[in-house]
Design brief:
206 residues; alpha/beta; Dna Topoisomerase Vi A Subunit, Chain: A, domain 2
Length: 206
Protein backbone atom coordinates (compact mmCIF):
# COMPACT_ATOMS: atom_id res chain seq x y z
CA UNK A 1 0.00 0.00 0.00
CA UNK A 2 1.37 3.39 -1.04
CA UNK A 3 0.97 6.23 1.43
CA UNK A 4 0.39 9.61 -0.24
CA UNK A 5 0.18 13.03 1.40
CA UNK A 6 -2.28 14.59 -1.03
CA UNK A 7 -5.98 13.79 -1.17
CA UNK A 8 -7.16 12.38 -4.50
CA UNK A 9 -10.33 13.33 -6.38
CA UNK A 10 -11.98 10.74 -8.64
CA UNK A 11 -15.33 10.70 -10.41
CA UNK A 12 -17.18 7.78 -8.83
CA UNK A 13 -17.25 4.97 -6.28
CA UNK A 14 -15.84 2.32 -8.61
CA UNK A 15 -12.83 4.56 -9.32
CA UNK A 16 -12.44 5.02 -5.57
CA UNK A 17 -12.65 1.28 -4.93
CA UNK A 18 -9.91 0.59 -7.47
CA UNK A 19 -7.61 3.32 -6.17
CA UNK A 20 -8.16 2.43 -2.51
CA UNK A 21 -6.56 -0.97 -3.15
CA UNK A 22 -3.36 0.82 -4.20
CA UNK A 23 -3.01 3.96 -2.08
CA UNK A 24 -3.52 4.95 1.52
CA UNK A 25 -4.87 8.50 1.49
CA UNK A 26 -8.12 10.43 1.43
CA UNK A 27 -10.03 9.64 -1.78
CA UNK A 28 -13.09 11.75 -2.55
CA UNK A 29 -15.67 11.47 -5.33
CA UNK A 30 -17.22 14.15 -7.51
CA UNK A 31 -20.27 11.92 -8.14
CA UNK A 32 -19.83 12.68 -11.82
CA UNK A 33 -21.26 16.07 -12.67
CA UNK A 34 -22.89 16.20 -9.22
CA UNK A 35 -20.09 18.39 -7.89
CA UNK A 36 -21.23 21.23 -10.16
CA UNK A 37 -24.25 21.88 -7.94
CA UNK A 38 -22.90 20.62 -4.63
CA UNK A 39 -21.36 23.59 -2.84
CA UNK A 40 -20.61 21.56 0.29
CA UNK A 41 -18.62 18.97 -1.62
CA UNK A 42 -16.70 21.67 -3.47
CA UNK A 43 -15.96 23.37 -0.15
CA UNK A 44 -14.56 20.05 1.13
CA UNK A 45 -12.31 19.76 -1.90
CA UNK A 46 -11.04 23.29 -1.32
CA UNK A 47 -10.30 22.57 2.32
CA UNK A 48 -8.46 19.37 1.49
CA UNK A 49 -6.48 21.21 -1.17
CA UNK A 50 -5.49 23.94 1.29
CA UNK A 51 -4.53 21.54 4.08
CA UNK A 52 -2.75 18.72 2.26
CA UNK A 53 -2.90 19.33 -1.49
CA UNK A 54 -5.20 17.73 -4.04
CA UNK A 55 -4.58 15.39 -6.97
CA UNK A 56 -7.27 15.32 -9.66
CA UNK A 57 -7.57 11.92 -11.37
CA UNK A 58 -10.51 11.77 -13.78
CA UNK A 59 -11.31 9.52 -16.73
CA UNK A 60 -9.66 10.34 -20.09
CA UNK A 61 -12.97 11.00 -21.86
CA UNK A 62 -14.83 14.23 -22.57
CA UNK A 63 -16.86 14.10 -19.35
CA UNK A 64 -13.69 13.58 -17.32
CA UNK A 65 -12.10 16.68 -18.81
CA UNK A 66 -15.23 18.77 -18.16
CA UNK A 67 -15.04 17.80 -14.48
CA UNK A 68 -11.27 18.37 -14.35
CA UNK A 69 -11.60 21.83 -15.89
CA UNK A 70 -14.38 22.77 -13.48
CA UNK A 71 -12.22 21.84 -10.49
CA UNK A 72 -9.20 23.54 -12.04
CA UNK A 73 -11.16 26.79 -12.14
CA UNK A 74 -12.55 26.37 -8.61
CA UNK A 75 -9.41 25.63 -6.58
CA UNK A 76 -6.16 27.64 -6.36
CA UNK A 77 -3.78 26.12 -8.93
CA UNK A 78 -0.82 25.98 -6.55
CA UNK A 79 -2.81 23.54 -4.37
CA UNK A 80 -3.68 21.13 -7.18
CA UNK A 81 -1.77 18.45 -9.08
CA UNK A 82 -3.10 16.73 -12.19
CA UNK A 83 -2.74 12.99 -12.80
CA UNK A 84 -3.61 11.62 -16.24
CA UNK A 85 -4.27 8.05 -17.32
CA UNK A 86 -3.70 7.07 -20.97
CA UNK A 87 -6.30 6.47 -23.66
CA UNK A 88 -6.87 2.70 -23.66
CA UNK A 89 -9.83 1.21 -25.51
CA UNK A 90 -11.87 -1.40 -23.67
CA UNK A 91 -14.56 -1.86 -21.03
CA UNK A 92 -14.59 -2.53 -17.33
CA UNK A 93 -15.58 -6.04 -16.18
CA UNK A 94 -18.76 -4.93 -14.45
CA UNK A 95 -20.10 -3.23 -17.60
CA UNK A 96 -22.03 -4.96 -20.35
CA UNK A 97 -20.79 -2.54 -22.98
CA UNK A 98 -17.97 0.02 -23.28
CA UNK A 99 -18.57 3.66 -22.37
CA UNK A 100 -19.66 6.24 -24.91
CA UNK A 101 -16.10 6.80 -26.17
CA UNK A 102 -15.03 3.19 -25.73
CA UNK A 103 -12.20 4.04 -23.31
CA UNK A 104 -11.25 2.51 -19.99
CA UNK A 105 -11.76 4.82 -17.04
CA UNK A 106 -9.73 5.04 -13.85
CA UNK A 107 -11.67 2.02 -12.62
CA UNK A 108 -10.26 -0.17 -15.40
CA UNK A 109 -6.59 0.82 -15.10
CA UNK A 110 -3.92 -1.58 -13.86
CA UNK A 111 -2.25 -0.65 -10.54
CA UNK A 112 1.08 0.00 -12.27
CA UNK A 113 -0.57 2.51 -14.62
CA UNK A 114 -2.24 4.33 -11.73
CA UNK A 115 0.97 4.46 -9.70
CA UNK A 116 2.87 5.84 -12.68
CA UNK A 117 0.18 8.49 -13.23
CA UNK A 118 0.44 9.59 -9.60
CA UNK A 119 4.23 9.72 -9.64
CA UNK A 120 4.23 11.76 -12.84
CA UNK A 121 1.76 14.17 -11.29
CA UNK A 122 4.27 14.81 -8.50
CA UNK A 123 2.41 13.03 -5.70
CA UNK A 124 4.20 13.12 -2.34
CA UNK A 125 4.88 9.53 -1.36
CA UNK A 126 5.42 9.11 2.38
CA UNK A 127 7.98 6.68 3.88
CA UNK A 128 10.07 6.80 0.73
CA UNK A 129 11.96 9.10 -1.55
CA UNK A 130 9.88 8.95 -4.69
CA UNK A 131 12.15 8.37 -7.70
CA UNK A 132 12.35 10.90 -10.45
CA UNK A 133 10.00 9.88 -13.23
CA UNK A 134 11.80 11.83 -15.90
CA UNK A 135 14.89 13.90 -16.41
CA UNK A 136 15.44 16.70 -18.87
CA UNK A 137 13.95 20.14 -19.30
CA UNK A 138 10.26 21.12 -19.46
CA UNK A 139 8.40 21.58 -22.75
CA UNK A 140 7.44 25.11 -23.85
CA UNK A 141 5.02 26.54 -26.41
CA UNK A 142 8.04 27.52 -28.50
CA UNK A 143 9.12 23.88 -28.53
CA UNK A 144 5.75 22.83 -29.94
CA UNK A 145 6.16 25.32 -32.79
CA UNK A 146 9.75 24.25 -33.52
CA UNK A 147 8.70 20.61 -33.56
CA UNK A 148 5.92 21.39 -36.03
CA UNK A 149 3.10 20.67 -33.61
CA UNK A 150 1.51 24.11 -33.60
CA UNK A 151 1.24 27.29 -35.62
CA UNK A 152 2.19 25.90 -39.04
CA UNK A 153 0.89 24.05 -42.06
CA UNK A 154 0.02 20.46 -41.21
CA UNK A 155 0.61 20.99 -37.48
CA UNK A 156 -2.88 19.82 -36.50
CA UNK A 157 -2.40 16.58 -38.41
CA UNK A 158 1.03 15.97 -36.86
CA UNK A 159 -0.32 16.79 -33.42
CA UNK A 160 -3.21 14.36 -33.80
CA UNK A 161 -0.88 11.59 -35.00
CA UNK A 162 1.45 12.19 -32.06
CA UNK A 163 -1.41 12.16 -29.53
CA UNK A 164 -2.54 8.83 -30.95
CA UNK A 165 1.00 7.44 -30.83
CA UNK A 166 1.47 8.50 -27.21
CA UNK A 167 -2.03 7.28 -26.25
CA UNK A 168 -2.92 10.68 -24.88
CA UNK A 169 -6.47 12.04 -24.47
CA UNK A 170 -7.80 13.79 -27.55
CA UNK A 171 -9.97 16.28 -25.64
CA UNK A 172 -7.17 18.78 -25.16
CA UNK A 173 -6.88 22.48 -25.91
CA UNK A 174 -3.35 23.61 -26.88
CA UNK A 175 -2.69 24.82 -23.32
CA UNK A 176 -4.05 21.61 -21.83
CA UNK A 177 -1.94 19.57 -24.25
CA UNK A 178 1.19 21.38 -23.07
CA UNK A 179 0.23 20.73 -19.44
CA UNK A 180 -0.35 17.02 -20.11
CA UNK A 181 2.89 16.65 -22.07
CA UNK A 182 4.84 18.23 -19.21
CA UNK A 183 3.08 15.94 -16.74
CA UNK A 184 4.23 12.90 -18.68
CA UNK A 185 7.37 13.74 -20.67
CA UNK A 186 10.49 15.85 -20.86
CA UNK A 187 11.42 17.84 -23.96
CA UNK A 188 13.88 15.10 -24.91
CA UNK A 189 11.14 12.46 -24.68
CA UNK A 190 8.83 14.55 -26.85
CA UNK A 191 11.46 15.29 -29.49
CA UNK A 192 12.24 11.57 -29.78
CA UNK A 193 8.54 10.73 -30.10
CA UNK A 194 8.10 13.35 -32.84
CA UNK A 195 11.04 11.87 -34.72
CA UNK A 196 9.54 8.38 -34.49
CA UNK A 197 6.12 9.68 -35.58
CA UNK A 198 7.69 11.37 -38.62
CA UNK A 199 9.61 8.23 -39.55
CA UNK A 200 6.45 6.13 -39.35
CA UNK A 201 4.63 8.60 -41.59
CA UNK A 202 7.40 8.38 -44.20
CA UNK A 203 7.14 4.58 -44.19
CA UNK A 204 3.41 4.82 -44.91
CA UNK A 205 4.07 7.15 -47.85
CA UNK A 206 6.54 4.70 -49.36
Amino acid sequence: MLRIKEAIVVEGRYDKNTLSQLVDTVIVETSGFGVFKNSEKLALFRRLAAERGLIILTDPDGAGFVIRNFLKGSIPPEQVKHAYVPDILGKERRKRAPGKEGKLGVEGMRPQVLEQALRRAGATFLDENAPQVRSGRPITKADLMLLGLSGGAGSAERRQALMEQLKLPKHLSPNAMLEVLNALFSYEDLAAAVQISGAEKEKVKK
